[in-house]
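Continuing the series of single-chain predictions for the mutant panel. This is the parent chain; the variants come on the following pages.
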Amino acid sequence: MRRKKVAAAVLACLTLAVCALGARAQDAAQVEELLKPVTAAKYPGADAVAVLDETHVDVEESGLSHVNRTLLIKVLTEKGAAEFATLRFDYDPASSVAEIKKLTVFRADGSVQEVPPSRIYDLPQPQFMIYWDPRMKVASVPKLDPGDAVEIETYSKGFVIAYLNDPAQPGDEKYIPPMRGHYYDVVLFQGSLPIVRKSYTIVLPKDKPIQAEVFHGELGSATSFGEKSLTYTWWKENVPAAKREPRMVDDQDAFPKLVLATVKDWPEKSRWFYTVNEDAHAFAYNDAIKAKVEEITRGLMTDDEKRFAILAWVARQIRYSGISMGKGEGYTLHPGIMTFNDRCGVCKDIAGMCITMFRAAGFTHTYPAMTMVGAKVEKIAADQFDHCVVATEVAPNRYKLYDPTWCPFSREIWSSAEKPQNYLIGSPRGEDLMETPPAPASDNFILIESDGTLNEQGNLAGTLTITGGHYSETNLAWAVVNSPASEVRSVFEQWVARISPRARLTSYRTTDPVEVTKPFSITLTYSVPGYAMVAGGRMVFVPPMAHGILDSPRMTDFMGAVKGDKRSYGIYLRATRDFTFRETLTLPKGYSLTGAPGYAKVDGPAAGFSASASMRSDRLQFNENLVIKQKIISAGEYQNLKSAVDAFRAAEQAPVVVGK
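Parent structure:
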């Protein structure tokens, strides 16, 4: 009897093994059929192709999500093979689980290689400024050759960001989102690789319908229902690789995007955000905070002065360094008392410190607000935020926004780089999604006034006074405060070197960048031997201020956006800008302007340019103005921007002629 049982068991095992081998063979055959048409000839220029990208999400009544994903990549070049030599998946153990269930290599010769678990590593993520102990699963893929493919199957639950409940709670409780019973996601259907097919399926309890909308393109979709569940699927096929462009808008504002959420509307989200922080006593203050607020605001008369003084203190005294507080980390702001003692935090904690001190100063209707830096927030009430700021109700239903993370060494209370920008205030009555108004270019002006002298030998000497407004003024101040004291001079030397490689900085001075109650200015004195070409009683030179001395990634980012004749995507700039250059150049006695270039004049909805050269007594007057009127410039308005920037660049090469 015992032998029969053993034999039966062996037979059963053999049968299962044969079935498993058959299933694997069938899977391999199916994969081979998918891979066969994906060739370098069909996808010229592609290093790899996403042959299949399938995501299946099961959402429980509690909001806990189980995500299974299968990703099949075929490499077409050596570069692609090197790119997919390792695969990385990030997670946060305080709020999520991540597993690599299966990793398989399909060779070009038809062989199949299962990658053992020993080649999958669980490692700490590299961390900088935010230390929340995130981790990553890293898979080491056996050497790939062009024509090979790698398939990875992953499973995750919870959320990647650590804003959930107490990690010590048993079972899956710690993976349930704090807005219990709700789920959201934002899914892009285009990326750096060509995609043969990408699909996203979500299964929810029948009493938990989801709101969804597709942006920037079209997706196939299907909906079905069972006795206890609703199933939604979206897909897209034969998607080309995205061709990225300089300074293009965020991927979420360019590529086909699915936004979905079970939350009814933004007021519901607003009330939750208010409640979760009030329940955590995030804005309670003690005697030490109250005393510091009284010290900061002593002698100030108006509410605006008091709030600005508190903002400036928080901005400079609470350094940006994120340390996990454990339970409630993420969307729950660190308690103000904790931040006051630690003197550090991320944006939400710096904002929380500001809210705490505002309330201690009597501004009790002050609340946290969420915003998204660099991208639009869609109307579906899914979490689309990455930054936290402060909103004070200064009149019924009228708020003033403050951003202490932005404001060290800035006279702005809210960055002009975030105009326009969507935001959501967490208030007891529940707010709708709002948007800051655009900043006119005149707010972010830079004015350079130059007073110079040119002698008969062509030697130039001059003084530049540089001032700015809002975003531009902040960048001028950062040129000083973000440079070691020993390197400030070299920064200004680089600026005057734009006039000529022979330019020498004679001296410089600045106002105090820390004193944010007063305008900031920079004064540079310089000389350039042999600046003008001299011959036969005439001098030929480009007006010094036509050289655009402030050319830098932060101050003139629009310059880098102008490449090529056309664009497919919009342009995202740091801010609007208005650059004005006013130059007075004293000429040798008897000299006057004998030849001036015909500067192009450009004016349009996105940008404008004008310049002129004329004489006033014995002085050459050069005036130039470049205006960037929009922070986000559509692809259709690119030609206007290009024309203005091209005219600006052309002026840098256009000499004037002066003579007796």
